[in-house]
Design goal:
12% of the residues lie in helices and 45% in strands. It is globular and about 50 Å long.
């Protein structure tokens, strides 16, 4: 079960993500490392069988640069988490900063689009590793 909790308020907040699996002893195990992103983040799970038999968890969170305002477009840091069978949990496989700026959440006219626009690059990176 993928679960997220939001905390904060005003113009900014944080989302924490966990992926819970029920263990034979009845306990819940979190399969994700600590993942906390801002309310400006784009988050997705993708089925990419060429990379992993388990879904890939990807995030893109804004980076606040010099001379940028709250409503400005920003560069984003993309992070890719892939399940590691030997460790029995997800691990950060790769991260990078986008080459282009994207609108922040306050300027979205539709659902977040950072990850979809970066999808080809993300898949190329993961497939090459």
């Amino acid at each position: 079960m993928l679960f997220n909790a939001n905390c904060g308020g005003g113009s900014g907040s944080a989302d924490r993500y966990v992926l819970l699996r029920s263990e034979p002893d009845g306990q819940l195990k979190n399969l994700l490392p600590e993942i906390v992103v801002s309310n400006q983040a784009d988050v997705a799970t993708w089925d990419l069988p060429i990379v992993s038999p388990m879904p890939v968890f990807v995030t893109a969170d804004f980076l606040w640069g010099p001379n940028e305002g709250h409503y400005s477009s920003h560069f984003f840091e993309v992070r890719m988490y892939v399940y590691d069978g030997a460790a029995d949990r997800y691990k950060l496989r790769h991260k990078y900063q986008t080459a282009h700026k994207y609108p922040g959440i306050d300027n979205w006219e539709q659902a977040p689009e950072v990850l979809e626009k970066e999808r080809v690059k993300i898949i190329e990176i993961l497939a090459a590793q």
